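forwarding from the other thread:

> can someone predict this with S-adenosylmethionine?

sure thing
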Amino acid sequence: MDRIKKLCERLTRCNVFADVGCDHGLCTLYMLENELCDSAIISDISEKSLAKAEKLLKKYIDGGICRPVCCDGLGAAGEADLVLIAGLGGENMISMMDRDGIPRNFVLQPMHSVPRVREYLLENGASITRDDVFESGGKFYFTVCGTRQGGSDSYSEACIKYGKGDVNGDLGRYLRLELAKKYAYLGGNAGGESRRRILRDIRLIEGVLSGETE
Ligand SMILES: C[S@@+](CC[C@H](N)C(=O)[O-])C[C@H]1O[C@@H](n2cnc3c(N)ncnc32)[C@H](O)[C@@H]1O
């Protein structure tokens, strides 16, 4: 629940909001209850998942301001000016955007492959306007927010890997934990290519923690 609350803090006012892979539909409930959108589209590839959101949002669906669609990817989100895709794998998000286009404005919360998502967005002309991490229930969740166009963001190797969060906040906590894990791997049997990769990550993390920008 705390993850949803923190995720929703990233959502901004829009006309048509789309919650792709909506499952429970809680983020759409937040948008509609707080009058942060005029209408909403909830979509999910699974009928069973979508049914949960339909139950939660019945009042809005009956009132004609929330439209449920069972479909794969961004097919139903074309008219939305803000699209949320959260809780899915990064590679799945990339496949959707590759097939259906990058949404006009987006909030993405990939469960993994976040660096690949950043690379994909930047390589395809999108602009990343907020790229940070939050902690919830002992886990860390990266969110990547931005717009389809206007991309000229400068992203170092460290930013591609860890985003642009606040090192004095949750990003710092995440990186210190990662650093401890990397040193533990090094103390184990890591050799060859794997050792070189870990050393490189350590250098990157220590650079970010010490405030290096490149
Ligand atoms: C773990 S839930 C995340 C729910 C919610 N967005 C959240 O962040 O809590 C992932 C949902 O994405 C749906 N999903 C997975 N792949 C999808 C796709 N290609 N298109 C639409 N929905 C998809 C699943 O059916 C599932 O309901």
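Strands lie at 16-20, 39-44, 66-70, 82-86, 105-109, 127-136, 139-147. thats all i got for now
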